[in-house]
Amino acid sequence: xxxATTGQPATVGRPPTTMDNAAPRQRLADRDSALAWIFLMPxxxxxxxxxxxxxxxxxxxxxxxxxxxxxxxxxxxxRNFRRAFDDPxxxxxxxxxFVFTAVSMVLIxxxxxxxxxxxxxxxxxKWVIRFLVLLPWTTPVSLSAIAWLWMLDSIFSPIDWxxxxxxxxxxxxxxxxxxxxxxxxxxxxxxxxxxxxxxxxRLTPLAAVIMMAGLVAIPRDLDEAARVDGAGYWRRMFEIxxxxxxxxxxxAALFGAIxxxxxxxVVDVLTNGGPNNATQTLxxxxxxRGIDGGDIxxxxxxxxxxFPLLLAAAVAILRAVRRMEVR
Amino acid sequence: MSxxxxxxxxxxxxxxxxxxxxxxxxxxxxxxxxxxxxxAFLCAAPFLWSMVTAFKQxxxxxxxxxxxxxxxxxxxxxxxxxxxxxxxxxxxxxxTLWVGVLVVAxxxxxxxxxxxxxxxxxxxxxxxxxxxxxxxYLVPPSLLFLSLSRIVVAFGLQDSTWSLxxxxxxxxxxxxxxxxIGFLKGxxxxxxxxxxxxxxxxxxxxxxxxxxxxxxxxxxxxxxAFTLTASEFIYALSFVSPTADKVISTGVPTELVxxxxxxxxxxxxxxxxxxxxxxxxxxxxxxxFIAGFTQGAVKG
Lengths: 327, 300
What we know:
The complex is a heterodimer of chains A (327) and B (300).
Chain A: H1 2-6, H2 16-22, H3 32-62, H4 79-86, H5 88-120, H6 126-138, H7 141-151, H8 158-165, H9 188-217, H10 220-228, H11 233-262, H12 265-270, H13 282-292, H14 296-326
Chain B: H1 9-54, H2 58-61, H3 78-85, H4 89-120, H5 126-136, H6 141-154, H7 162-167, H8 169-185, H9 189-197, H10 202-213, H11 215-231, H12 234-239, H13 248-256, E1 257-258, E2 261-262, H14 264-284, H15 286-297
Antiparallel strand pairs in B: 1-2
């Protein structure tokens, strides 16, 4: 868009920067380089003071023996990391973090695409449907997790009740077993599935909104031209829609990964890491060690461990997006 | 007689095709509506059940034999009134609101100029600088809150809602800059150049011509930033402990979960009462928000 406009005669031939530089008297507000720094400086100062400084402090904590009871700062090198690596719960949490993030990322992107198509369809009462679909994302996560805690209650879960009514649960020979309840958060595998399901439920609407942006941007004539040329639904899907939506799908995946990777409220509220650390993630374990256990150095070390992974993943995705855009 | 002669083969063919297409159209409409209703139901199901639960009597709720989806005993508003009379729900809501408004104001005040500098001032480093700012968003609160709580104490803001006003912009500024870059790139360059030709400075052109045109995008960023602020949990949990200074996301769980006792009906009522207004406002600006993503937010 911008390249097209600079070529037009309406811009008086030369870009404004050269005009300003050529002018003998310059006001500060006209000098781009100075203005760029003035505009950027407040944000940069804010972020350095309240993200970079605490980040460095956190690294310091990870390399020291700070605890809640003894806040004095003594250098211990990599002891906190070594202690974490010796703990089987750490490896369990690391594995869980990857499983949660990978599975929910795939589901979020696929379901997000489906949901985006549904939200774009011409239906009556679109406003109501959009409103209902957005609810999971706009609700504060601690509250929606509590709503789910009640949905998955070990005795009063309405899901269990429906399964019982349908004869799939609670009678001998029933599909889901003879017990009267599923214990969604009590069985290790079910608990993992439940945590993933709640993450996916919460983040799919956001992914759908991001991907709607991609779908809106597809020029209609491209699709229609392909249709006239005789391309079928799947052909159009895979040769036009998917390549054009891919960059935004990657962005949706990135957001989904960040929110799953770094958010501990869902795990904290639903399972508290249990049963027997089956749903423990690095974020929640760092919180339990650092705050509940009072071992700040250990907590910081565990929390710090996941940052390089997140950074690498984000850079990889953003680079891939840019390459797709250039093409 | 002529009326009984069979129609020409071409006409029959056309009629058959028309019927096929009509049937296909109906089928696709039915499919679309089914999918839309199913999606809405799956997303809203916990809230629908929350609304039923909120009005249940205890004796109805805590009986696994009762149908959990309908009322086996008359509905009661007691637990919803309890939320307003016996908890600080309104205080929490008010705190969330004013913290959100201030955080959004700080975010725009700092973020808009920064985004403009990166989108328009043609610095060679603008591209990677924008990415670097976005990457700040990836630093998880779970890593920062330990050291940030020390900083909050150093500012003398511990146990005050103002600590959240200070800290939340660190979450909202990076995302907002990233989104605003997209909106500002969507404003045609001609317009600010025209404003400068008309005698405005770069600053004046930015303020008088660019910001008003990017206003819809700004509104979308406001809504997004507010949603992030309202749902933040870890910072709010670790910085603020007095009840009167808590926000919704921490206040409701701590007031209504006492040890092992969950005040389920009141909790569900609170969830619905918070979720619905935010979703309505977000929905109002959904189209703007979508437009923002397409206007180059990912096009670097």
